[in-house]
Write a structure and sequence with these properties.
Number of helices: 4
Oligomer: single chain
Helix content: over 70%
Largest sheet: none
Strand content: under 5%
Shape: elongated
Distance between the termini: 21 Å
Length: 151
């Protein structure tokens, strides 16, 4: 298989765009659920999970193609991105579970304070992770620009 780095890096960007839209759908749907509980969370989570899995598979395929063709710099960028995205998804799930738990009545003020602190901590971690993901995507864009300028 011939690997055209410009084509493949653009495919990566397309998959990241789909992933970002899926996160937006997940977050919006989850907020709707928290506000009204009229959203079918199981259906929302299932649909988003399928889309995340498809994006991840497509991106892994790009990584494998780069690695097999000797374009290790691009493969390593993608691996870094995938690891950060996996961590982001895990933190997002923890945040949503905690958000749901915070809705349950609690008699203990300590428990409320611990939950609030945990929510703040998770928000901070997610924020830092988004910055790291954007930094990797900036590196991808720089590599793509360099390739286009070299043509």
């Amino acid at each position: 298989m011939t690997v055209d780095p410009v084509v493949f890096l653009n495919r990566l960007k397309e998959q990241q765009s789909i992933r970002a839209k899926t996160y937006a759908k997940l977050e919006s749907g989850f907020e709707d659920f928290l506000q009204s509980e009229r959203v079918d969370c199981q259906q929302l989570f299932s649909g988003c999970t399928e889309q995340f899995q498809l994006c991840s598979k497509n991106i892994r395929d790009l990584e494998d193609a780069f690695r097999k063709s000797g374009h290790l710099t691009y493969a390593d960028l993608i691996r870094s991105l995938q690891e950060k995205e996996r961590e982001k998804l895990e933190l997002t799930i923890k945040f949503q579970r905690l958000s749901m738990a915070c809705r349950q009545p609690s008699d203990e003020a300590f428990s409320e304070a611990v939950r609030a602190a945990a929510m703040t901590s998770l928000r901070t971690e997610l924020s830092h992770l988004r910055v790291e993901i954007n930094e990797v995507l900036d590196e991808v864009q720089i590599e793509l620009s360099d390739l286009l300028n070299a043509e």
